[in-house]
Amino acid sequence: MHKSASIIGAATWYVVYTAPIDLMRNKLHELVKVHSLRDRRVANLQVIDAEQSTVKVRALVSAKNSPDAWNLRCDIRENMIPWLH
Known about the structure:
Blueprint: E1 7-15, H1 21-33, E2 38-50, E3 55-63, H2 66-84
Antiparallel strand pairs: 1-3, 2-3
């Protein structure tokens, strides 16, 4: 029986091969640790594809409902971009 209404949201980035994936993972955990929309169930970051000059990185985060998941993943994406620069 499914008892949770938790929703998983995904944020993706295309980064160069030299991007600091471990540091991105640490930054994700730092961002979600203090975010009011996260429900503390899921927060992970993985390389999900590799192309000729970039890798595709995806963060998964959970929230209690769909609108919160949307806003959480947008916030995570927006905060990771300037950090990557």
